[in-house]
Write a structure and sequence with these properties.
Strand content: under 5%
Number of domains: 1
Number of strands: 0
Low-confidence stretches: none
Structural class: mainly alpha
Radius of gyration: 19 Å
Mean pLDDT: 85
Largest sheet: none
Number of helices: 5
Order of helices and strands: HHHHH
């Protein structure tokens, strides 16, 4: 089904330049979708009686991303992402951190209004985000090397 959709899209676009621009737009859309997903999480945390429901949009995007990455890794290695605070990623990282912090603050406040839980939730969330920011690029580079070695070995066969 997915391969048929890709082929149909590329057939409809025809020209290689148009296909490349379409994929560039898809990359831009993916970044924008992440921001909008976090904004959706914030809105659900504010509006819903149960703030745990605010994890649903993030979970659906995470599942879709995992499926897409798994499919991609069959043919090409995972791309190496820049470090979170490199010039290329600085704005994206700051926007993501701000939206995540707002979401965690509202989530913690809605879950339990006590200041000790809010402080614990915020501190735990911040620590979790920092750990991900530090570990994800290292893991990503190692995964890229493993994928490259695997694909090279398959091509040699």
């Amino acid at each position: 089904m997915i391969q048929q959709t890709i082929r149909a899209t590329e057939r409809a676009l025809g020209d290689e330049f148009h296909i490349r621009k379409y994929h560039e737009a898809s990359t831009y859309t993916l970044t924008l979708a992440m921001y909008l997903t976090l904004i959706g999480c914030i809105a659900i945390a504010v509006l819903a009686d149960n703030p745990w429901l605010s994890f649903i949009p993030l979970a659906t995007v995470g599942i879709a991303n995992s499926i897409g990455t798994s499919r991609m890794r069959k043919e090409i290695p995972v791309p190496v992402i820049p470090k979170p605070f490199s010039p290329a990623m600085r704005k994206h990282t700051v926007v993501t951190l701000i939206l995540t912090f707002i979401w965690l603050l509202i989530f913690s406040w809605k879950l339990d209004g006590s200041s000790s839980f809010i402080n614990g939730g915020i501190i735990g969330g911040i620590v979790g985000v920092v750990v991900v920011l530090l570990i994800a690029p290292v893991y990503n580079r190692k995964q890229h090397k493993r994928d490259t070695a695997r694909i090279d070995a398959e091509l040699e066969d």
